[in-house]
Design goal:
single chain; mainly alpha
Length: 139
C-alpha cells in the first residue's frame, strides 16, 4: 500500500468514525432530549398540583390530630382539676372536723395537720398535671 492509499484509507476511516459519532450523538440526544416547552409546563403543573393536593391532605390530617390532642388535653386538665378540688374539699372538711373535735387546745395541731394535708394535695396535683402532660406528649 502506498502512502497516498494509506492516507486515503485513514481519512475514510476517520470520516466513518465521525459519521458514526454524529449518528450516536443524534440518537442519544433524541433519547434524552427534554420535552417540548408546552409538555414540560404541563408536567410541571401536574407535579405542582399533586404536591399541593398532598400538602392539603397532610394539613387536614394534622389539623384533625391537633384538635384531638387539644380535646384530650382539655379532658385531662378537667379531670385533674376536679380531682384536686375534691381533695382540697376533703382536706378542708377534715380540718374543720378536727378543729371542732380538738377544741381550742388542739386547734394549732389541727391547723398544722391541715396545712400538711393541703401541701400533700398540692404535690399530688402537680404530679397529676405532670402525668397528664406526659400522657399528652407520649402520643
Amino acid at each position: 500500500m502506498t502512502c497516498n492509499e494509506k492516507a486515503e484509507s485513514q481519512s475514510g476511516n476517520r470520516f466513518l468514525a465521525l459519521l458514526a459519532g454524529v449518528g450516536a450523538g443524534v440518537v442519544v440526544g433524541l433519547a434524552i432530549a427534554p420535552k417540548s416547552g408546552r409538555k414540560m409546563r404541563a408536567d410541571i403543573g401536574d407535579s405542582v398540583d399533586d404536591c399541593l393536593d398532598s400538602v392539603s391532605q397532610k394539613a387536614g390530617e394534622l389539623r384533625k390530630s391537633v384538635i384531638n390532642l387539644a380535646k384530650r388535653g382539655q379532658r385531662e386538665v378537667r379531670k385533674t382539676t376536679d380531682d384536686v378540688a375534691d381533695k382540697m374539699n376533703d382536706a378542708a372538711t377534715g380540718a374543720v372536723n378536727r378543729v371542732v373535735k380538738a377544741g381550742a387546745d388542739g386547734a394549732y395541731e389541727a391547723i398544722d395537720q391541715t396545712v400538711d394535708a393541703v401541701n400533700a394535695g398540692a404535690k399530688k396535683g402537680y404530679e397529676a398535671v405532670d402525668r397528664a402532660a406526659d400522657a399528652l406528649t407520649a402520643n
